[in-house]
Amino acid sequence: MTRYIMRLDDASPYRDIRNWDRVEALLDQFGVRPIVGIIPDNQDQSFRRYARDEKFWDRAQNWQAKEWGIAMHGYDHVYISHCSGINPVNARSEFAGLPLGEQEAKIEKGLAILTEHGLTPRVFFAPAHTFDHNTLLALKNKSEIRIISDTVATEIYFRDGFYFIPQQAGAVRKLWLKTVTFCYHPDTMNEAAFDELQRFLQMHANRFVALSDLVLKPRRINLLDRGLAWAYFNLRGYLKPHKDQRM
Length: 247
Ligand SMILES: [Zn+2]
Prior knowledge:
Elements: E1 3-11, H1 17-29, E2 35-38, H2 56-65, E3 69-72, H3 100-116, E4 123-124, H4 133-142, E5 147-149, E6 157-159, E7 162-165, E8 179-184, H5 191-204, H6 223-234, H7 236-239
Parallel strand pairs: 1-2, 1-8, 2-3, 3-4, 4-5, 5-7
Antiparallel strand pairs: 6-7
Helix pairs in contact: 3-4
Bound molecules: zinc ion.
């Protein structure tokens, strides 16, 4: 039986509060606790179209208290390379291709900001889904985070000292995999997206699990995972798994 994980991207003081509140109310209604990716120091100018929420950090603490999984979503969300790294979803990155020292500094500063606001991230995922081996090394050297939400596989797996919770879809859909993460950007959700999500939750809310529900086992990646990842990156036009995954 497939289990689903909800992931919300791009939480920061600069966000569409109405949309975020609406997603939160919907998830609360169905008892779904997502993984939420928080940008520690959001310098991505595309978010400046939203008014700054001075109460953001209180909200984030409230999410943590509700057992939402807290994730560090990069550091400043500014794309400074055209590398796609080891999860080549996009050809731009805040991390991939950068020297280890620079990546360590981002991890260290990001973690300090989240910690200062009372948050304990257990998960990391990079802006644009792009990171490389140095990102993993930086996380090892500068944090206790050992879980990555990203990459394509059939189920959670363990590799290079990290648990990878695969992230295969940009919107709710039935997929015949063991663990499926749906990645949403509340800022850009429209009526149709809310309707689709609500309908899916009405049918399948009981299949959603929270980060705190997961018992992580050191499963190795297998042939099926490799085949799926190959298909995902080579048949993307056909599978359209990343619709709307612009960030
Ligand atoms: Zn993002």
